[in-house]
Amino acid sequence: MVSAWIGLGSNMANPAARISGAIDRLGQEPQLTLERVSSLYRTAPLEYLEQADFINAVARVSTILGAEQLLERLVRIETELGRTRNGDRYGPRVIDLDLLLFSDEMHCTPALTVPHPRLHQRLFVLAPLAEIEGDMRLPDGSNLAIRVTACTGQRVERMSAAATTAAIDGVTNGSSY
């Protein structure tokens, strides 16, 4: 068994509930054991700014699958949960499941690059990853806590348990969160 870390994100149609559903779906997947899940985080979009905020989280799983097999599972789960790939890389999405880390391994194939190639630039995955893993060492030898500190200028807010529950239930003052 190896540990893998999955980034989850959504900014369409009750994104907190979509993240919750994706987490439930990961927990039901054969050959995966859901070990730990971060809080939900409300985050500003990057690259394409004219879209709603995202809700993000990170989950740690253990698996007997290889990295590319796990990626195939994640893509299948995204499709089952309503994701369509229209070529808009940074645009709104129903659900996004990214393989961030696969043990301490580094992979670079046409289908998969692990660690995720932009992991070190994205506070929306670094903050929830740090929440569940503290100051772990990344495969390149860098310290996660230092990577978090180095990411500046990105709005990332950890949601309280009450806000998370309300967001999943869709009852936050008329908001879509």
Helices and strands in order, then pairings?
Layout: E1 2-10, H1 15-28, E2 32-37, E3 41-43, E4 54-63, H2 67-80, E5 96-102, E6 107-108, E7 113-114, H3 123-133, H4 144-150, E8 156-158, H5 161-169
Antiparallel strand pairs: 1-4, 1-5, 2-4, 3-4, 3-8, 6-7
Helix pairs in contact: 1-5, 3-4
Task: Supply database-style keywords.
8 strands; alpha+beta; Alpha-Beta Plaits; single chain; disordered C terminus; two-stranded antiparallel sheet; 177 residues
How far is the N terminus from the C terminus? 36 Å
Which radius of gyration do the C-alpha atoms yield? 15 Å
Provide the structure class.
alpha+beta
Helices and strands, in order, run as: EHEEEHEEEHHEH
The description of the largest β-sheet is: 6 strands, antiparallel
The DSSP helix count reads 5
The CATH H-level superfamily is 7,8-Dihydro-6-hydroxymethylpterin-pyrophosphokinase HPPK
CATH topology name, in short, is Alpha-Beta Plaits
User: What fraction, in percent, of the residue positions are helical?
Assistant: 25-40%
Strand content: 15-25%
Mean pLDDT: 88
Shape: globular
User: What is the highest CATH level, the class?
Assistant: Alpha Beta
Return residue spans where pLDDT drops below 50 for at least 5 consecutive residues.
171-177
Integer tally of domains:
1
The count of β-strands is 8
Judging by the overall fold, what is the CATH architecture?
2-Layer Sandwich
